[in-house]
């Protein structure tokens, strides 16, 4: 019996000795976890508060305002339910806004990406002065849309503009770019593509320079022609770049505003969704509730387009 009692006491001391380091480890882990959470809250807390205050709270408020029949600055507002949405999707003006938005977005995205890819293919060659050419092509992208619009207003001026002299040289009168709605849309598409193709060219150039040279050399050894090498080797390896540019350029084109506002202040033929939001809220109408509904539609449209691209289009992307 004394031996059994002694053994039990010994095992108890061993368990106590083993439990003490484990308790210290747990306390150290809890302390480290608390310290990490404190640092996380300290560094991300202000940013999270700012995002909540200036992004999500306005978004939620905008959804609420879209259900009101309310003029900007008025103290009276009545609940309208979904009437603002129904009016936008059924009115001739709303359908015209959709037509212009789709036309402008498709033209600028395809134009910027195709011309940007061609420019990148040229700039990827060992040509004299290519560094200066790269800088010159990318420069318009970082310029202010207001400044770019003012310069191109002078170029498109039907009486004194640079293009008017070109048309007169060939014995033709300058088109009325600012009066004809269709020509006004063509005008802003040309300027927007010119301003943004440098961005596409630089991104495509980075993608081209990431393609391994041994693949191109192997294709050349197989006597593949230049077009075959481009469509069978270069373009598939550029699919991640194409996917990235498709997502970013669609989103930026649908939110183009400053250039359109400067070149066509009344939105004649160029009133895209984002322009219609401004016209309805801060223009002559001041229909804040209706404008809020249009902005919610714009947000949901971009969210759906991006989700579809991320869900389905990304499957076609070939990551080397």
Automatic annotation (TrEMBL):
Residues 1-23 are annotated as: Disordered. Keywords: Cell membrane, Membrane, Transmembrane, Transmembrane helix, Transport. The chain crosses the membrane at residues 37-60, 97-123, 135-155, 183-208, 229-251, 288-308. It comes from the Bacteria. Residues 1-10 have a biased composition (Low complexity). CDD domains: TM_PBP2 (cd06261). Residues 98-309 form the ABC transmembrane type-1 domain. It is found in: Cell membrane. GO terms for biological process: transmembrane transport. Belongs to the binding-protein-dependent transport system permease family. This is Sugar ABC transporter permease.
